[in-house]
């Protein structure tokens, strides 16, 4: 059975996906690259470096190494500006309840996020102490869809991958979980997340035991 829940952060626990999009959009505009909300689906769950590579590819353009670094810094500065007011009111509906249900069921709880801002954000949301392990963008070398982030999370709480359930809002994250041989609940649209074990629109009104019974 499931003994560990691994949560993605952006778009699963907190509504930061829109701020990532705004910051990337602003950067793309500054580079003269057309970037739509549909293009943004490709960036969800993907590391900062890989995201910039995707944007440059979309625009069929390139940056030299110092410009590339500068663009990464600029995007994060804008992103941090957008989340300056972030607080617990932006925890996504149902997320806190599912965290509590996992805790009450005696499960391990881990974070598996590509974000280097994960700890800062969890502190702002007052959720840091809900996690037994935090594997974030500072701890992994291979971006989703590589399974590294989820495998490291499972190993940090000493649970076999087959006993882990991942919650993800991104296609790359669903693939990463499948590559880790874990069950995965995709939160969002079936067209994007169809390969997940189960797809739900979001966590609102969801009960952990009911979700697990459907896997
Ligand atoms: C998450 C988000 C991505 C973001 C990535 C890196 O996976 O879904 O949109 O690019 O984290 O986040 P960071 O905060 O390190 O730029
Ligand atoms: Mg996400």
From TrEMBL:
Residues that bind substrate, according to the entry?
A: 8-10, 24, 43-48, 51, 75, 113-117, 144
Q: Which GO terms describe its molecular function?
A: beta-phosphoglucomutase activity; magnesium ion binding
Q: Which residues bind Mg(2+)?
A: 8, 10, 168-169
Q: Which family does it belong to?
A: Belongs to the HAD-like hydrolase superfamily. CbbY/CbbZ/Gph/YieH family.
Name one process (GO BP) from the record.
carbohydrate metabolic process
Q: Which InterPro entries match?
A: B-phosphoglucomutase_hydrolase, Beta-PGM, Beta-PGM-like, HAD-like_sf, HAD-SF_hydro_IA, HAD_sf, PGP-like_dom2
The record's catalysed reaction(s) read: beta-D-glucose 1-phosphate = beta-D-glucose 6-phosphate
Q: Name one matching Pfam family.
A: Hydrolase
Q: Give the cofactor note.
A: Binds 2 magnesium ions per subunit.
Q: So where's the catalytic machinery, residue-wise?
A: 8 (nucleophile), 10 (proton donor/acceptor)
Q: Which UniProt keywords apply?
A: Carbohydrate metabolism, Isomerase, Magnesium, Metal-binding, Phosphoprotein
Q: Where is this site: Important for catalytic activity and assists the phosphoryl transfer reaction to Asp8 by balancing charge and orienting the reacting groups?
A: 113, 144
Native species of this protein?
Ferrimonas marina
Identify which top EC class this enzyme belongs to: isomerase
The identity of this protein, by name, is: Beta-phosphoglucomutase
Listed cofactors: Mg(2+)
What EC designation does it have?
Answer: 5.4.2.6
